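My current task is to audit a protein record that another person submitted. What it holds is a sequence and that sequence's fold in token form. Thanks in advance; the entry in question is below.
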Amino acid sequence: MKNISKILFVTISCFFTVNIEAQNPIIRNIFTADPAPLVHRGILYLYTGHDVATQDDTNYKMADWHVFSTTNMKDWKDHGALLSPSAFSWATGDAYAAQCIERDGKFYWFVSTFHKKNEVSQGGAAIGVAVSNSPTGPFEDAIGKALIINEMTTDMKYGWDDIDPTVFIDDDGQAYMFWGNGSCKWVKLKKNMIEVDGEITTFKPKNYIEGPWVYKRKGLYYLVYASEGTKPEMIEYCTAKSITGPWKYQGIIQENVPNSFTTHPGIIDYKGKSYFFYHNGSLPTGGSYRRSICVDYMHYNKDGTIQKIVQTTDGVSSVK
């Protein structure tokens, strides 16, 4: 009997140890989606969507955008809901994927939501930009109108293709914004970050659906995106020697995630390691409309190609 009790004690202890050590999902107090990391002055900030759908809902309900931060990749500070579609007088609907980027001491938060039907637009998805002097706000509409409206892109014959902006500033100071559902679109931004500079270019990488993330590493440009996968989305990517392409398809780096139809990449280097943020539906009562952000390591081969992401419940180790 003593041996049985000892075995049970060890088994239970191990069970609780595993659960205590498990880090993914990293945000557990609310349902979060569409991660967008930013490093500023030694702090990693994570900009996220916020799922508020009930267990019975059959579509997205995303109330606002939140910000979290960490200095050790283990402990996350919740700075709260710092922006919502109501901050934009022209907007209506939900808080879809967004990304914040710093330039010249200001923080520009590019967001996707929907446009009211009015004399400017007949509605549909639109991209706005909010600005702040701090990574944690307060943020306000930078231009008082949408940066991109549905009428600016006509290649996709539906109203929700102008979503999921990602913004990148190249070494020469030129800023670019990529976005789109169904097709990928890009445009130059002026130095003020609140005006487009030139024509919009549209293209479709292999298996592309939505959620692009653009960055540069060791002279190579990366376009990572949510793809068709096996009906639930996967993450695939392309590389190029120029930000304007041509883009070379490189393959799948993340397979389907648990309990969520979608996934969404957010990639950053921090304190000497590369991190891959994404979301799944693995929290209790979670699902495709009640998602949660996770992070795992990202590794590159010598030629710059990306190794397959290993999804874990342990997450990543603490850093100093």
